[in-house]
Amino acid sequence: MLVAVIALGVVGIGYGMWADEIVVGGKVDMSGVAAVFQQAASNDPQSAFSSLPLTIQDPIAPGTWSMLPNGSLNPTCWDGTHRTGTDNNSAFTTVSGQGTDNLTVAMYNAYTNYRGSIACTILNNGKMPVKVDKVTATVTPVANDNGAVAGDVTLNFSGALVKDTQIEPTVQVLGAIDFQWNNIIPNQDYDFEVVINLSSYNIANETADWSRTLRIKGVLVTVNELPEP
């Protein structure tokens, strides 16, 4: 019996030595999705021609955008074709709102085959990768004296403005919108809006904290068609 009592005593001592509470502390950063339009540029800005070659006139053929080696973006980053001559520079496209979640675009004096385009970079300011869930675009004729007349203008998207594009934290990805005027309606204005929905791509059931909406809004103003070069 003595042996059994001693054995139980040893077990009790051992339990007392190992029965303790272990707490593992830590912090999970649920910072959500944070993104902005870090940069934006037009291929045909109104004020750029003082610093660009005089041969650069209104864009007339498709082109693509690329960022400069230092990561910046300006009108010279577009490689499309421009009109030639001294009388084919009536149109221009402006963009503003860099560093925010809303860009404003205005395209003036557009005509058939005018290739206005804007580029922008989306910067992921969050701590988790995000993806583009959906891109929705609407173009609406504005009523004037003759009512609202629909013309043939299409918006083409590339890069960061395409569904399922992934953007890593602290990275900015280049995207662009090309405004393709196929059949102009003279003296007809258009309102347009592009909505880009972003979300954390590895969250199965996202909530409002895990999504962000960026918007590009503006107006397209047309004139009578100019002659082909």
Summarize the structure.
It is built from one helix and ten strands; from the N terminus they run H-E-E-E-E-E-E-E-E-E-E. 7% of the residues lie in helices and 38% in strands.
Structural notes for this entry:
This protein is mainly β. It has one domain: Immunoglobulins (Immunoglobulin-like). It contains one helix and ten strands, in the order H-E-E-E-E-E-E-E-E-E-E. The strands form two sheets. Strands 2-3-10-9-5-7 form a six-stranded mixed beta sheet, with no helix packed on it. The radius of gyration is 28 Å and the shape is globular. It starts with a helix and ends in a 7-residue tail after the last strand.
Annotation keywords:
six-stranded mixed beta sheet; Immunoglobulin-like; 229 residues; 7% helix; 1 helix; mainly beta; single chain; four-stranded antiparallel beta sheet; disordered C terminus
Q: What is the N-to-C succession of helices and strands?
A: HEEEEEEEEEE
> Low-confidence parts lasting 5 or more residues at pLDDT below 50?
2-30, 225-229
> What characteristic shape results from the CA principal axes?
globular
Number of domains: 1
| Annotated CATH homologous superfamily | Immunoglobulins
Describe the SSE topology:
Elements: H1 2-18, E1 35-42, E2 92-96, E3 102-110, E4 117-124, E5 130-141, E6 152-159, E7 166-167, E8 172-183, E9 189-200, E10 211-222
Parallel strand pairs: 3-10
Antiparallel strand pairs: 1-4, 2-3, 4-8, 5-7, 5-9, 6-8, 9-10
